Amino acid sequence: MHRSGIIGDTVQSLGFLSRLPIPRNWLDGESSALKASLRAFPLAGAILGLLAGLALLIADFLHLPVLACSFIAVGVLIAMTGALHEDGLGDTADGFFGAATAGQRLEIMKDSRIGTFAALALVIVTALKATLLATIMQRTGAGYAVMALVGVEAASRTAMLVLWYALPSARPGGLADNLGAPQWETLVCALAIGFGILAITIVPAGGWTALLKALIFTAALLYGFAKLCMAKIGGQTGDTLGATQQLCALAVLIGLVSAL
């Protein structure tokens, strides 16, 4: 049974966004419960970022190279989510750039096989995230890198809700379509939570300049990706929401590193 309140919504969100061993009786399988919990996506992302940050600290304690520490943290994130968002990024890359019509693109995005565009997108984005995280470790220390992970994962899951709210569904019957777009009040609440977490975690390392750059880069990327989604498939799908998380996480990291 779904427990009301922000804590219950966070647990419900973690049950959807991750493969963490959450007791089944803490979750509600009804789609209405998930839709009601969307405001807690940033909090769920922050928890995942913190857990990945703990893995980074352990690796740093073992005196592993900073790049190895950052790859371990990224790997833990992938393991915790079951590559949910990475799968969306790969499917989106294959679909958007592997076909000529919107219908063909949507069919490719449903295919579980990995094509050339998906492989390249996953390698490039994952490598960039790990490299930027390693740079933060080098310039500010492991503690601030953990804080950055928390902020990045919270903000990027907020960005998912923005795209979900702003664009129409491109695939009738899909998960995002069945749930329906977030309510305006839900989006505003998620934005407030996501911004608060981002500010608390980014400003100590890079100051207000880092926060401003992170917001500008993320907003620009989100706007451009939304335009691309409309041009390629006429809206959003669950895959494009996953791609949004990956790309906006990258944008926040770029903003922070550029300010250090």
TrEMBL record:
A GO MF term: cobalamin 5'-phosphate synthase activity
Cofactors that this protein relies on: Mg(2+)
The keyword Magnesium belongs to this UniProt entry's keyword annotation: yes
BP terms from Gene Ontology: cobalamin biosynthetic process
GO CC annotation: plasma membrane
Pathway: Cofactor biosynthesis; adenosylcobalamin biosynthesis; adenosylcobalamin from cob(II)yrinate a,c-diamide: step 7/7
Enzymatic class: transferase
Keyword annotations of the record: Cell membrane, Cobalamin biosynthesis, Magnesium, Membrane, Transferase, Transmembrane, Transmembrane helix
Transmembrane segments: 40-58, 64-84, 114-136, 142-167, 187-205
E.C. number: 2.7.8.26
Main location: membrane
Compartments where found: Cell membrane
InterPro entries, A to Z: CobS
UniProt superkingdom: Bacteria
Pfam families according to UniProt: CobS
Topology versus the membrane: Multi-pass membrane protein
Family designation: Belongs to the CobS family.
Function: Joins adenosylcobinamide-GDP and alpha-ribazole to generate adenosylcobalamin (Ado-cobalamin). Also synthesizes adenosylcobalamin 5'-phosphate from adenosylcobinamide-GDP and alpha-ribazole 5'-phosphate.
Database matches in NCBIfam families: cobS, PRK00235.1-2
UniProt-recorded name of the protein: Adenosylcobinamide-GDP ribazoletransferase
